[in-house]
Design a protein that fits this description.
Strand 1 (167-171) and strand 2 form a beta hairpin. The longest helix has 33 residues, at 2-34. Helix 3 packs across helix 4 (99-109). Among the domains are: 77-127; 141-178, no CATH class. A two-stranded antiparallel sheet has the order 1-2. It has 179 residues and is mostly helical. The protein contains six helices and two strands.
């Protein structure tokens, strides 16, 4: 019985020594990588080296194998099309589509939509190809009342010219007609 315990203790000491030797080799390897110019060549090793090796901390690999937070939000093709639809719908209504406005519209239309935060929606919009561009504070002249009336006059003149016996030709983005 006593011999069995001594054998177990001896095996445990051997395992502990093997672990220490392995840690020492790992510490030497990391020290060599951290301080490549301070290497010294020595053929003998003393007990002081082992004490220094044990005092040097060694980074251990993380035991975490996967992401521990919430799972990623995956969108189906229909949900991706829903995002595109609402962005283009706000543009058609001449409203600047912010992520908050688009998210409010989507959630009002579909309360079971998988995205609930503006940050997640913004990330998905980036994946779908939408880019953020700063808008200028200048009023767009094409939307001004003067340009809209000029455009309406232009189209009525062209319609009259096409319906009549006049010949029109285009020259350098302007048109001329003979009456």
């Amino acid at each position: 019985m006593r011999e069995g315990q001594e054998r177990i203790m001896e095996e445990k000491r051997m395992d502990d020594q093997a672990k220490r030797d392995k840690e020492n080799e790992a510490a030497k390897g990391t020290r060599r990588l951290r301080h490549p110019r301070s290497q010294t060549v020595s053929s003998t090793s003393s007990s002081n080296d082992n004490i220094m090796d044990l005092a040097t901390p060694v980074a251990r690999p993380p035991r975490k194998l996967a992401h521990s937070g919430r799972p990623r939000i995956g969108l189906s093709e229909q949900e991706q099309e829903n995002i595109r639809y609402h962005v283009h719908l706000t543009l058609a209504e001449r409203i600047y589509p912010t992520t908050e406005k688009v998210l409010n519209r989507i959630l009002a239309n579909d309360p079971n939509f998988s995205i609930r935060s503006t940050t997640s929606l913004w990330r998905w919009m980036k994946k779908l190809g939408f880019t953020y561009k700063r808008t200028s504070k200048v009023v767009v002249p094409l939307d001004a009342l003067f340009f809209m009336t000029a455009r309406a006059r232009y189209f009525t003149d062209i319609d009259e010219a096409r319906s009549g016996d006049t010949k029109s030709f285009w020259h350098d983005e302007t048109w001329c007609n003979k009456k």
